[in-house]
């Protein structure tokens, strides 16, 4: 049976983690075997990345981009093996995040693509679309680290360019309530995965 590596993407505050979990739960409930992954990972490299993102470790954007690429490679065998075993992979972020975020931060799109050339590319991308204004409001409510408005706009624009490089992209209005976003994702995914049966 053909399976898919599905990546849930969007700028910070879009609700990726929540929607990735809901999608995996929905797939599992209807008989599919599912593996959840997320970036950064829980490994040593992923831990260092989180320290840097929290500003507890100082490093350049170039080094951070390379760490993301290295962390991503630790998932490669896991994702490939899962798909070969008939397991769906649902990921909270993927290489697409680096192509958008690091390109926005560095302005070196070709270099970011090159350092990620060995990463597993998602079969389907679910892009949760929200405005930078909504993103900042949500992140502030959660007392989380957030980017400034200018950078979020750059990332959103970078996503628009990056998504053109992928064949299967589902764009969902993330300004809706959580349940409505989840339902829209399921509805749009059925276009790419006809065998999926998402009945309550």
From TrEMBL:
Chain positions recorded as ATP binding sites: 10-17
SUPFAM superfamilies the record matches: P-loop containing nucleoside triphosphate hydrolases
Keyword set includes Transferase: yes
Any one Gene Ontology molecular-function term assigned to this protein's record: ATP binding
Any one GO CC term of the record: cytoplasm
Stored PROSITE patterns: THYMIDYLATE_KINASE
InterPro entries the UniProt entry points to: P-loop_NTPase, Thymidylate_kin-like_dom, Thymidylate_kin_CS, Thymidylate_kinase
Top-level taxon of origin: Archaea
The EC number(s) this enzyme carries: 2.7.4.9
This protein's UniProt keywords: ATP-binding, Kinase, Nucleotide biosynthesis, Nucleotide-binding, Transferase
Catalytic reactions of this protein: dTMP + ATP = dTDP + ADP
Primary enzyme class: transferase
Domain Thymidylate kinase-like: from-to ranges: 8-185
A GO BP entry: dTTP biosynthetic process
Family from the record: Belongs to the thymidylate kinase family.
NCBIfam families: DTMP_kinase
Protein name as annotated: Probable thymidylate kinase
Organism: Caldiarchaeum subterraneum
Gene: tmk
């Amino acid at each position: 049976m053909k399976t898919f590596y599905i990546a849930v993407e969007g700028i910070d505050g879009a609700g990726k983690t929540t929607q990735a979990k809901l999608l995996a739960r929905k797939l599992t409930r209807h008989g599919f075997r599912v593996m959840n992954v997320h970036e950064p990972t829980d490994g040593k490299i992923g831990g260092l990345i989180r320290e840097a993102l929290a500003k507890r470790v100082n490093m350049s954007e170039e080094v951070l981009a390379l760490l993301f690429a290295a962390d991503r490679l630790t998932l490669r065998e896991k994702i490939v093996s899962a798909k070969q075993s008939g397991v769906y992979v649902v990921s909270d972020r993927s290489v697409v995040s680096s192509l958008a975020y690091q390109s926005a931060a560095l302005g070196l799109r070709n270099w970011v693509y090159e350092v990620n050339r060995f990463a597993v590319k998602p079969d389907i991308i679910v892009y949760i679309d929200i405005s930078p204004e909504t993103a900042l409001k949500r992140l502030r409510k959660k007392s989380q680290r957030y980017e400034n408005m200018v950078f979020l706009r750059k990332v959103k624009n970078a996503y628009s360019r990056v998504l053109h490089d992928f064949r299967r992209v589902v764009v969902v209005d993330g300004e809706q309530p959580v349940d409505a976003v989840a339902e829209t994702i399921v509805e749009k995914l059925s276009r790419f995965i006809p065998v999926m049966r998402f009945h309550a």
